[in-house]
Amino acid sequence: MIIDNTYNRKDYSENNDLKNYLDDLFSENIEATDCIKNFDTNEFVKNGMQSQSYSNLYDCSGKTGIYIFFNKDNVPVYIGVGGEKNGKQDLKKRLTQHFPDTSHLAKNIRETEKVLGYEKQVEHLTSKEIMLKYAPKFLIVIIGNLVEPHNCQKSQKLEKILIALWNSRYNR
User: What predicted TM-score, i.e. pTM, was given to this entire model?
Assistant: First the structure.
C-alpha cells in the first residue's frame, strides 16, 4: 500500500511481491489511510514555522515513521525516518527540520547537484528555493507510538528498504 499510495498509479499495484514482503516484515497491515498522508512542500516553506500547515503534522507528535520527498515527477528523491530508538526526535520534529533555512535535505541536494556538475543551477538558490525545486512534495507514513521500541525498529527497517529499492538521489 505504501508503494501504491506513493505513486498513485496502477502499474505499481500489479506486482505485489514487495507489498507482501513488507506485510510479512511488519506482521500486520499498514494500509490504514490515516497513517499515510501527502503534503505539498510549498505549504511548509512559504511561511516557515508560522505556517498553518505545521498544525497538519500534529498527528506526527510522539510518533515514529518515515517520510519520503518527491520531485515534480513523483520520483522519490529522499527518504528519512523520524522517531528513532533514542526517543529524542519524533516524526514531527525530524520532518520540520527539513524546512528552515538550515535544511539538511537542502544541503544534501546542493552538494549532490554540485558533484553531478550542476553547481550553476543550485549555487544561487536559497534552501527554501532548493526544497521547492527539487522536493516539492512529500508523504509521511506513521508507524506507531515512539515509546514502543518495536515501532522504531519497523520505521528504521522500512526506511532502509525503501532507500535500497528506490535509490533515492539525495540519500547518502
Answer: 0.79
